[in-house]
Each structure stands twice: as C-alpha cells, then as structure tokens.
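Fold it.
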Amino acid sequence: MPIKISIRLFLISMLFFVQPYIYGIQIDIWPNLKQLNLQFSDDDNITRNRIEQQKIDAGNQIALAVEELDRNALEEAFNELFSASSGLFDLYDKYCRSTLDKLPETLPDEVNRVAELERHARENMEKAEVLRMEAGKAEGIEKIEQIYRMAFDLELLALLKKGRGLRIYQDYPVIYAYPWDNDFTNMNGSPEKAIRLVEIKEHKEPGDKPGRELTDEGICFIIQIAAHTDKITESGLKAIYNGDIKISFIYEDNLYKYYLGPYNSFDEAERVMKSLNMENVFIAAYYDGRRIGVREARARQAQQD
C-alpha cells in the first residue's frame, strides 16, 4: 500500500504541482498577495482581514492535528484553510466582474490578457479540487497532509493569477509593465513603468463638471495619482497620498481620476512628481478643459513661447 500511494503521489505531483516550485525552492505566495496593492471598499477590507485571520487559525489547527495524528481534526483544519482561500478568490472575482462591467467593450491587448490569467486561475482551482478528493482516499497523516498542501498551493497560484488580473483592471487606463510579466516567480506587485495611457473619449457624469479644479482655457498639467470606477474614500486617498498638496478629482471615461495640481508647466509638474517618491503616478495635460497628450501640450506651449 505505501508503494501504491507513493506512485500516485508522484504522478499527481507531476500533473498538478510544477509551478509553485522552481529548482526545488518553494514560492511563498500568500504573504505577497498584499503587495499587489489591490483596492477594496472598507467593508471588503474587513472581510479580507477576517480571511487572513482564518488562514492563520487554520494553520495552527493543522500543526496541532499533525502532532496528535488526528485525521478528522486535520481534515477539518484543512477545510478551514480552503475556506479562507476560496473566500479570497471569490472577493477577487467579485471585483474583477464589477470592474470589467464598467470598462469599455473594446480593451487593448494588454488588458485582454487578464482573460488568460483568469482561465489559468480557474484551472488551478479545479486541479486543487481533484487533489482534495485524492487526499480523502489517502492513508496516513503524512500523506494526507502532503496532498492537502499541494492542493492549497494550487489555490494560492489561482489567487495570485486572479489578483494580478484584478491589478491590471484597476490600473486601467494606464498600461503598465509589471515585474512578473516575464518572471512568474517575481512576487513584487508594483508596476515597473507605465507603457502608455489609453486615450478614451471624455464622458460627463451628471452633476460633475469636467475639468474640476482645472483651468477652462489654456494648457495645464496635473499629476494623476489614482483612478477608480467608484469614488475613493477619504481614508483610501490618505493611504495613497497623505501630503500637503490638495487632492482633486475629475470624472472622465467612467472613472474618477484623482490628481495634484494643476500646474502651468510640465517642468513644474515633473519637479513636484519627483518629490513625491510615489509609484504609479504620471503627468497628464489639459487644453481648454479637454485632456490631450503631454507631448501635444508641450508642443503647443513651445509654439506660444
């Protein structure tokens, strides 16, 4: 029987459990999910913290069950662990769906890649379910724990891919290059650089005047620090920027865009932006209250000079 179980475990490992291990070194995914800096409502942040505590409690229960060689307790503890990962996956999925519903129908290829990430995430969740069923058939605490941990690692991979997809959605309309684009094992969730800003038509929300805090005539520059489909709470804005410069917003393209400024020149805006020491910020330009490319704005100013 031990030989049969070992062969089955080896085959399962080959089929389902390749990605979490690179050159024999296991990637610790869960602690790095927070580095994706995903934006949630205050209530859902409470939910996320509750899930985090549930995961910690389940880990303690698993250790105790293994020590006491208690199979029933081990299975119950792992069920709690899988409940935590499934809860977080559902939270990510809810935000992916709600964000996608508010995005334009035609998205750039860089944004459409989220569909591929989500497909892989679903596949990993399905494979994890197969492993959980296998754990129920296994004999011996050590084997059961081993297979369950393999299943949990697959669910972590699913969370990582789903979370990365949500990050791309939440960063839109800015298209970023991410550290993990060409290196799956890179757990740094912050973008490396902005590739481009998607130019989309201006859209007015009733009651919100486009160009709020922006000059109605002439050229000006702003430092955009955030954008979201819903209004960001005051506490959320403070988490993004807690400096002395006033934060304003403009509603464009079905997004609330938060910025510092406006500034009369690109050089002034760039000087302030560099002093912020912030990631994921960029300079945008407006001409007569209408958003235009920064290059065009600088060219127009040069002609006026």
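The chain has two domains: 2-177, 199-304.
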